[in-house]
Amino acid sequence: MKKLRARMDESILVCAYYGPNGERLIKRGCKIANMLDCPLYILTVDSLPLEELSADKAAYIDQWKALAEELGAEELIIRDNEKRPAVKVIAEVARELDITQIILGQSPQSRWEEIKKGSFVNMLLREISFVDFHVVSIDRSVEDDENLFDNGTRAYLVKSDEGHRISFTHSDEVIHEGIFYKETGTDFNNGVFKFIKENKICQLHVTDDKITEPTSIHSSIKEETFEK
After folding, report:
1. Euclidean distance between CA atoms 178 and 161, whole angstroms
2. Fewest CB within 10 angstroms: 41, 54, 120, 127, which?
3. What residues does the UspA domain cover (predicted)?
4. What are the b/e assignments for 102-125, b being 16+ CB within 10 Å?
C-alpha cells in the first residue's frame, strides 16, 4: 500500500535498467524518498514492446513491480516500444511528474565513448537542468554477466497426451502463441516459453519440449499451472 507523503515539493524518480543493480537503485531511491517523506517513482525504458522482451528482462520487471509495491512507490512506469532516445523519455516523465531528483546508475561508457557521444548525465542536464541528479556506482562484474538465453523463437503451447509441450508449427491444438527462449549452450529445447494472457506476461519452464515445474531458471519466473 502506498504511503501518504507529507512533502509534495520533492519527488524522486529512479531510472532502472535490467540487471541486479536495478534493485539497488530502487532501494537507494526509496531510502532518499523516506528521508524526504516524498513520492517515489520508478521508470524503465525499452525500445521493444513489452510482449517481445526477453525472459531475463521480463523477470526483472516482475521483480521491480513486487519491489515497488513492497516499498510503497507511487508507480512503476514502463515505457516500452519507445523509439526515442532514453534521455528524451526520462526528461518527458520528469516534467510530467514534477520530479525534483533523479537517481540513475553510473554509465558504463568508456572515456572514448564519452568524448564521441557525450556523458549520459550531461545530456540529461541539457534536457532538464531543474533536477538534481544522484549517480550511483554499479557493480560492473554483475552487469557484464552473460545472458542465460539465446534470442527468442516463435513457438506455440499445445496440449498432448503427456501434458503440455511447445511446438514450432501452428496447429488446431495450439493453446497459446508466444516466444521460446532456449538456454544457452544446450542442444535440447530447454528454456523458457513466454506468452501473454489477460495482459500479463506468463512464463513456463521447458525441458525437452515439455512444460515442467517447478522452474529453477530464475527466481522471478512464475509458473502457470493448467487444469488437467
Report:
1. 21
2. 127
3. 11-127
4. bbbbeeeeeeeeeeeeeebbebbe
Cell of 187: 542442444
Query: CA-CA distance, 151 to 57, in Å (whole number)?
Result: 12
220 against 80, higher pLDDT: 80
| Residue 189, C-alpha cell as written in the block | 529445447
Tens digits of residue pLDDT in 50-69: 888 888 888 888 889 999 99
* DSSP string of 86-123, one letter each residue: HHHHHHHHHHHTT--EEEEEPP---HHHHHHH--HHHH
Cell of 212: 515442467
Contact 3, 31 (CB under 8 A): no
Homologous superfamily of domain range 12-143:
HUPs (3.40.50.620)
The CA angle 79-149-24, to the nearest 5 degrees, is 50
Bridge partners, residue 132, by sequence: 101
* 34 CB-near residues (< 8 Å, 6+ apart): none
Strands 101-105, 12-15: pairing is parallel
